[in-house]
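For the sake of transparency, this paper describes our internal protein records without simplification. An entry from our holdings is shown next, in its original layout:
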Amino acid sequence: MPKVGGDLSEYLRQTSMPTVWCPGCGNGSVVRSIAAALEKLKLDLDKVVMVGGIGCSSRTPFYLNLNGMHTTHGRALAFATGIKMANPALKVIVTTGDGDGLAIGGNHFLHAARRNIDLAVIIYNNGTYGMTGGQQAPTTPEGFRSTTNLVGSIEPPFDVVELAMAAGATYVARTTTFDFDEMPRMIAEAIQHPGFAVVEILTQCPTYYGRMNALGDAPQMLDYEKDHTAPLPQPSREEMVGKLSIGVFRKEVRPEFTERYAWFAGRSGEKK
């Protein structure tokens, strides 16, 4: 695994720099981690496809030197499913946000997980709709403010890990942009996993989420991530009050959708 400062330039589209992201945004750290994961795996980049929807995180395919597709809001998984079905030999990575992937795209998320189709889904969870002005998202914690709820959310947020596992994802992990060494490892495992893999990354948005909730600038928000998470195995119930667990929650192998589909398609051509 390359150390911080290692040369990952072959994985980046130099002509697309600088990024559109705000100073202090955690998305750049995630992009570096994806590049480091690709470096570790030594994949043929011509056989890797990255699909993004709409939102800050979904701009990621613009900056990585892969086959890329920028799609419509909430539909990244639908496009990615089509790509994987058309050419199962491809490694398909989806970059999506908590809003794009779990609100308008929530139904696609559930059914892609249920099918166990071989996709690696990286969910950038900053608790807000960052690109469109800081509105409340399905992951905004109760009591936290947004531009559409200045008194604080009264809605319980999705727990992305629990949602993914309940829907049938076979690799499920959660980490943060503070845990800089963990991100590439989990992303690499998700890409290699033979089934539907989800990596939730808690990432900072100082421009909206941090400012609206008095969490400070990027370094202070990284400290907030550190202080409000705990690695598996989970500590005592008392120590977990107000915290989220991070780590790999599920890693199992069960029949993958494109393989099963190919088998059924072959069977359909048999003489009765």
About this structure: The mean pLDDT is 92.
